[in-house]
Amino acid sequence: AYLFIRAIGRHSLGLGYALVSTDMLLAMIIPSTGARSGGIIFPVAKSLAEAYESKPGATAGRLGAFLMPLVYQCDVIICAMFLTGQASNVLIAKFAQEVTGIELTYSQWALGAIVPGVLSLIAVPLLLYRIFPPEVKHTPAAAELAALELKRMGRMAWGEKIMLIVFALVAGLWMTTVFHGINYAVVALVGICVLLLSGVLSWEDVISERGAWDVFIWYGGLVRMAEALGETGITKRFAETAAGFTSGWKWWAALALLLLVYFYAHYGFASITAHATAMYIPFLTVILAAGAPPYLAVLSLAYFSNLDASLTHYGTTPAPIYFGAGYVTQRRWWLLGLLASLVNIPIWVIFGFSWWKLLKLW
């Protein structure tokens, strides 16, 4: 984070892009958005706001009211860009394979998202800067502070170098799974073992990582719940009802309507996982029944499952953290979420669909 801030953090907008760049780099390997954005990025964003005497209340508009929603809105986009962007993406990929037989690998997911994702990461901060600009426009002290912190930290320690090497190897193996066939979980476990054997991590560090254990324990149950829901026939009946409503429509019209319904239905969910578990399979089934190309249906729903978390202050794990900082009112947060959706949806539909067409995915 300090490297990015030192490089481009002399302006409030650049400061936002620096934090977003850090989040994007970490998302390549850290699948917990709560740990990544809430545990790493948020404290840095808050300390930067406070460095410019921006605190909840009268001084929120100096910088904090700009940084907090910006970082969160971009974190949601980053969640959509990588299979490891947030924990339930693996669950979504499993659903897609069950219904269509399409296997979304790490590299395929990232390749499909790179163009619309980068465009969204550029556009959304610009939108927020235009609509609700911070009072503090120039932030040279932030870049200077980052330089001082880097100097104080000194050269990379041996453990930090090992961590960086393991990070690069794990990310590289995930990206090339299609060539070597090693399972993602095996790669992750090997990475953990290397860190343990080298002493970079202790066993106490592993067992105290509650977020990872929560994912390990609960996601198996969620997968089984989704399977049980399908066995009841509820999702099938829902799909048949929706298919009857869009009967006779062109596939692209049915796709457009159902994507919008799927996206804005997230107002009723406090979790990406809950939303995807309840709605991904039935909506995918309906869209496929309408005649939409399988890859187009799978990818659009997968990415929208993440992007729709931008709408509210409870959309996914980090949302209450950033909103709870107290810099932004609920009214403004929801307004920014709606405006961001009006930017993200056209970008991912127009440029995303075109990019996937260029890749010959549909």
What would you say about this model in short?
With 362 residues, the chain is mostly helical. The chain contains 18 helices and no strands.
Query: What percent of residues adopt helix (DSSP H or I)?
Result: over 70%
Low-confidence spans: none
Our estimate of the beta-strand percent is under 5%
Determine the number of helices (DSSP H or I, runs of at least 4 residues).
18
> Cα-atom Rg, whole angstroms?
21 Å
Distance between the amino and carboxyl termini: 38 Å
Order of helices and strands: HHHHHHHHHHHHHHHHHH
- Biggest sheet architecture: none
Number of domains: 1
- Please give the number of β-strands: 0
Q: Structural class, from helix and strand content?
A: mainly alpha
Secondary structure elements and pairings:
Layout: H1 2-8, H2 12-27, H3 33-51, H4 64-81, H5 89-100, H6 106-131, H7 140-153, H8 158-175, H9 177-180, H10 184-197, H11 203-207, H12 210-231, H13 234-245, H14 251-264, H15 272-289, H16 294-307, H17 319-324, H18 330-358
What does this structure look like?
- The protein is mainly α and 362 residues long.
- The protein has helices at 2-8, 12-27, 33-51, 64-81, 89-100, 106-131, 140-153, 158-175, 177-180, 184-197, 203-207, 210-231, 234-245, 251-264, 272-289, 294-307, 319-324, 330-358.
- The protein has one domain (2-358).
- Helix content is 74%, strand content 0%.
- Helix 2 (12-27) runs antiparallel to helix 3 and helix 3 runs antiparallel to helix 4 (64-81).
- The mean pLDDT is 86.
